[in-house]
């Protein structure tokens, strides 16, 4: 099964789904929380292959789960995912913070303030 990064044009929303083709990936994505809640337009969805995520597929798994710590680490590390609105305390407790550019920025700001 192939992993696909799915984004909507001009929108923060994205996910990684597993499907055999890009068309099937787009159809699957339209039924995920990320796109149903955003009332996404099918024509504005962009699909991109992410082969390095293929190995995380398990039978029956259709989407990487942001709320699963292991999946979140993969999404942040390998797909550059990050939280849209977050504070330092949220980042500090995130399982993927060591890979997150937002967290690194918070740490840099703290170091600069301490100088």
Task: Describe the SSE topology.
Elements: E1 2-8, E2 14-19, H1 22-29, H2 33-36, E3 45-49, H3 69-79, H4 88-92, H5 101-114
Antiparallel strand pairs: 1-2, 1-3
Can you walk through the features of this model?
Strands 2-1-3 form a three-stranded antiparallel beta sheet. The chain folds into two domains: 2-81; 84-115, no CATH class. It has 115 residues and is an alpha+beta fold. It has five helices and three strands.
Short description:
By secondary structure, the chain is of the alpha+beta class. It has 5 helices and 3 strands.
Helix content: 25-40%
Q: Order of SSEs, N→C?
A: EEHHEHHH
Whole-number count of domains: 2
- Broad shape: globular
Strand fraction equals 15-25%
The Cα radius of gyration reads 16 Å
Distance N to C terminus: 50 Å
Instruction: Label the structural class.
Output: alpha+beta
């Amino acid at each position: 099964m192939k992993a696909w990064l799915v984004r909507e044009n001009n929108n923060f929303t994205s996910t990684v789904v597993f499907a055999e083709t890009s068309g099937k990936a787009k159809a699957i994505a339209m039924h995920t929380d990320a796109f149903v809640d955003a009332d996404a337009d099918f024509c504005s969805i962009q699909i991109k292959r992410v082969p390095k995520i293929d190995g995380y597929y398990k039978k029956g798994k259709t989407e990487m789960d942001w709320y699963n710590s292991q999946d979140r680490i993969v999404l942040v590390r390998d797909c550059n995912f990050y939280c849209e609105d977050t504070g330092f305390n949220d980042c500090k407790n995130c399982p993927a913070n060591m890979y997150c550019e937002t967290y690194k920025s918070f740490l840099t700001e703290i170091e600069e303030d301490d100088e």
